[in-house]
Amino acid sequence: MNEQQYLNYISHRFRRTFHESFTPQWHCPSCENGMLKLKQDSLDYYETEESISRRSGPDWEPDSIEYRFSARFECNACLEVTNCIGKGWEAVYHDSSTEVGETIYVDEFMPLFFSPPVPLFQIPKKCPDSVRRAIISAFQIAWADYPAAANRLRVAIEKLVDEVAPHNRKLANLHAKIEALKEMHSEQYDLLMATKWLGNNASHDDNLREYDLAYGFKILDIVLKELYLYDKEGLMQVAKEVIKNKGPIHF
Predict the structure, then answer these.
(1) Helix axes 129-142, 210-228, angle to 10 degrees
(2) 114 - beta bridge partners?
(3) Which of 24, 186, 243, 244 is deepest in the core (most CB within 10 A)?
(4) Among 121, 200, 141, 189, residue whose Cα is nearest residue 161
(5) Residue 131: strand, helix, or coil
(6) CA distance linking residue 134 with residue 157, whole number of Å
(7) Nearest-angstrom CA–CA distance, 157 and 152
(8) SS3 of 122, please?
(9) CA angle at residue 142 from 138 to 145, to 5 degrees?
């Protein structure tokens, strides 16, 4: 891996902050089509006791403030409400549009849990329920616990492999099951194996980072789209007919 590839890898992210006048593009977990917006007057936050105790210190700065919050977000399509809790802080920004570079302080918030969990990618409708449930359980804790979410992502991979090749379910472990897919699903083999190793690492070490988990989610998103969204078999059938006719198909 060269330097640019490594930089691309560590740029993967899924966590976003919000403030009272800005909500990131979070899809509604209920209808999956609409976008969430902070419900008016629903944000409730307070400064933690530990943060308050630091105010008397000689090195105290506004950006050392820590909050705990709860909030509700409403879907702009189905109007369902999603609840959220997390932490916050006093973010410091410098307005470069003014000559003096005015300093602006904004109360900024990072979610730790959504209920129901916000989807980090759209799961195809044809995806088997067992896989879907495992993915949603990973979404549920992804913001707060990267290793635990990666473990659940590994469970989703095992469920997926069992669905794709049920005749391999009796193999000793997930590694063997993925190896058995190498010939039939060569395009997905490397992606599934990479996600398996991320999940394995999460089981034995706590050094998993957000970008590792975000990369795992991206891999699974791609694999599911290839298996359950894109009609590759249908495309190949049409391609063979075009080749046979040496041009467009007409009836």
Answers:
(1) 160
(2) 84
(3) 24
(4) 189
(5) helix
(6) 9
(7) 9
(8) coil
(9) 110
Question: Any idea which residue has 């936050």 for tokens?
Answer: 45
- Give the span between the Cα atoms of 225 and 69, in whole angstroms: 36
- Structural contact between residues 141 and 120, judged by C-beta atoms closer than 8 angstroms: no
Are the C-beta atoms of residues 112 and 17 closer than 8 Å to each other?
no
The fraction of the chain above a pLDDT of 90, given in percent, is: 61
Query: What is the pTM assigned to this prediction?
Result: 0.85
The angle at the Cα of 7, spanning 6 to 8, to the nearest 5 degrees, equals 90
**pLDDT tens digits for 173-191?**
999 999 998 888 888 888 9
Q: How far apart are CA 20 and CA 34, in angstroms?
A: 19
Q: Token pair of 19, please?
A: 């403030």
**Closest by alpha carbon to 14, among 215, 206, 224, 191?**
215
